[in-house]
């Protein structure tokens, strides 16, 4: 095989792989758009005193609410449990989750670990983070019936 044949073969494989990858990309699910978590605005992050803690908090929040929505999809949580969790988080963010009632096992992490992280960031970010938590809680509670049982079709 000469260089030209090799080049053509490589290009045809690239095209084939690109088409396969593109065709396997999942289409956006309308439920996913409705249950996307909100994050703290960039200007609130850039002024924060400790970037490491800020990134950890953002990661915890995004991961937690994503998992919460998935738990709803798979039917692991009832509407009542979701309301208790979200109400506890919404009220608990006012004092950095220190007096958070452990109405569900998932809240223990917020009380023990997240409260320590929140203590290490400045007041401006704490307020923005709390608003983000409240917003995400409202989104989850309002979209419970839309997400319940809507398990994504996995493509293998």
Describe the structure.
- The chain has 156 residues and is mainly α.
- The protein has one domain.
- The protein has eight helices and no strands.
- The longest helix has 23 residues.
- It is flat and about 75 Å long.
- The two termini are 35 Å apart.
- 24% of the residues are buried.
- About 18% of the residues have low confidence.
Percent strand: under 5%
Rg from alpha-carbon coordinates: 21 Å
Tell me the distance between the termini: 35 Å
Largest beta-sheet details: none
Say how many strands there are.
0
Number of domains: 1
Structural class: mainly alpha
In N-to-C order, the SSE pattern is HHHHHHHH
**Overall body shape:** flat
Give a quick set of tags describing it.
156 residues, mainly alpha, 8 helices
Gist of the model:
The protein has 156 residues and is mainly alpha-helical.
Topology:
Blueprint: H1 3-24, H2 30-34, H3 42-46, H4 51-73, H5 79-92, H6 107-119, H7 123-142, H8 144-147
């Amino acid at each position: 095989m000469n260089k030209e044949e090799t080049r053509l073969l490589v290009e045809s494989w690239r095209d084939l792989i690109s088409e396969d990858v593109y065709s396997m990309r999942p289409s956006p699910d309308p439920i996913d758009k409705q249950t996307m978590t909100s994050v703290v605005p960039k200007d609130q992050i850039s002024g924060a005193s400790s970037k490491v803690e800020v990134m950890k908090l953002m990661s915890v929040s995004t991961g937690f609410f994503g998992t919460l929505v998935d738990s709803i999809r798979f039917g692991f949580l009832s509407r009542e449990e979701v309301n208790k969790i979200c109400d506890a988080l919404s009220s608990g963010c006012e004092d950095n989750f220190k007096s958070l009632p452990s109405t569900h096992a998932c809240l223990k992490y917020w009380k023990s670990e997240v409260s320590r992280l929140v203590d290490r960031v400045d007041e401006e970010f704490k307020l923005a983070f709390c608003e983000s938590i409240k917003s995400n809680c409202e989104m989850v509670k309002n979209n419970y019936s839309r997400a319940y049982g809507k398990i994504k079709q996995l493509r293998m």
